[in-house]
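INFO worker-7 received task bundle
INFO bundle size: 2
INFO processing item 0
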Amino acid sequence: MNRKILSALMLFLLLPASYNACSQSPFSRSDSGSSSDEVWTASAEENVTTNPYALLSAEQVLKSMSSVTNTPVNGAITNEYNSRQSSLASDFDLKEVTSPMLISITNLAGVVCNETLKIEMAQAQNSRRLFSSIDFSKSVNVITDKSYDDTVVRMSSAFWGRKPSSEESQVLSSGRGEFVSALSANEANNSSSSKNLMLFLCTSMLASFDSYSF
């Protein structure tokens, strides 16, 4: 993945994080009096019971990414998955979340999104499932707020099964601003900048917590 895109993605690795202020964070232990062993269990069934979040396994992550993007698992995706599989979760326990795991998920999501973009960019604009609001023949400077927001909603519905919260929309909007501001004048005026922004957006959302948990 382009180094500039990957660097920007590190700021949004845990998106979305719009949990209810009264609810328990998926990364914190329960204060209900239960023992650590009861809360941090490797069993998916018990994990769902004691904590509202559990992780997808490595194979489930791959299948989910392929399914929600409607992108077949090809050679490029398989190669990336094979190189990252050992860093992905081996069970459902939230203790499996590590920095190497998050980086691996981000890289895998980046490859899946890149293949998704290849597929959709070859289609007529009004036939695209996720990127029908984006004119890839023009630079990132031409992408309007409406087009960007429409793409966010389309991917949110596909990847998360819901519309983005106001907080998530704001984070993704800020991400767009930071991504574009990091481009040189020549990069921003090049039509490839539109694809790179969409790769950044897609990867951010596909690598988010909602995409590898249940």
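INFO item 0 finished
INFO processing item 1
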Amino acid sequence: MSNLASMLNHPEFKALPECGQFAKNGSWETAWSFSRRTLPSQPEIEAYLAGATEVAFEAFFGEAFFGARLSGETRAVAGFALACVDAFRVAVDGATFFSHLSGHTSLSGWGQSISFSEVGAVNAWRSVGAFKTAAPHEALKEFDALWEQLTLTPLAGNSSCKKAIEFACLLPIPHWFALPVSLSHPPFELSRERLRQALVSAAMG
């Protein structure tokens, strides 16, 4: 396990989040995305959920993003979705976003430890496929082998989607911090240097 508490202070997550999105049942390919100027209302959120017992939310800080998923009773899921949008609405920077999210969900301890890490295609995690990596410290020790294995995957052959590495945690609820590992412009090829930098960021925690 690697400590990820410092990710809250990572430069990528200090800025004001620019956009957000919801997904049900892990279908990010059909995510409901919105900007700060098109934040969904409570009736719109409730209509989207339609009694769902699971929902995931992501907030984008440029190319980096934070996500969290809640499963449970319909009321709890709806309350979580509303809290995510409220945190997005009142945030003036990354710190206030995470503070508000914790205060209005009764959840805390974001990024205490990594349960697993994987590289995937943003909003196409399932369809393009993801590649699991070892814990950051171990992945850096065997980085050349990791990179060679990654370049042989279908993920590496995809150039239409941005790529990111997610550092996933299971407590207090499933959540993840993701950093970009591809070029910022099309074609979105994997970047060896960006992957190394992301692993170093997590290992430093």
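INFO item 1 finished
INFO post-check item 1: The chain has a mean pLDDT of 92.
INFO post-check item 1: The two ends are 11 Å apart (CA to CA).
INFO worker-7 idle
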